[in-house]
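Q: How would the C-alpha cells look for this protein?
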Amino acid sequence: MIRQFKRFWRDEKGATAVEFAMVSVLMLTMLFGTIELGRIFWTYNAVQSATELTARYFITHTSTADADLQTYAQTAMNNMQLDGSKLTITVTKSTTSSIKFIQLDSSYAYSPLGTLITQFNNLTLTSRTRISYP
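A: Here is the predicted structure in C-alpha cell form.
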C-alpha cells in the first residue's frame, strides 16, 4: 500500500489539470467581476444620461407635470435597453435671485446578472442634475 502511495505521489500525470482547476476559479471570478463592474458603470451612465435628457426636455416644455417627467425619464431608460420601471425621479423646483432652477434626483435599483456576487444585490445608483430654465 505504501509503495502504491509513493508511486502515486511521484506520478505527474494530471498535474496540468489540477493546476488549471486551481487557477481557473480565480480567473473566472475576475472575468465575471469585471463584466459586472462594467455593467454597473454602463447603467450609471445611462441613469445620468436619462436624468440630463429629462432636464433638457423640461427646458423646452416648462409646463410639464412631474409625473410626465418621470415617464419621460423611464422611456429614456427603456430606449437604452434598461428597465425604466426601476428608475425614480424626484423633481424640485426653486428660485434663487429671480433665476428658476429645476433639480432632478434619480435613483435606479441595480440588479446584477448572476446571484454569485451578492455585494451588488442592494445597489442603488443615484444621479442629480440641476439646471436653470426660463
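The chain is about 50% helix and 25% strand.

Residues 39 and 112 are 8 Å apart (CA to CA).

Upvote if useful.
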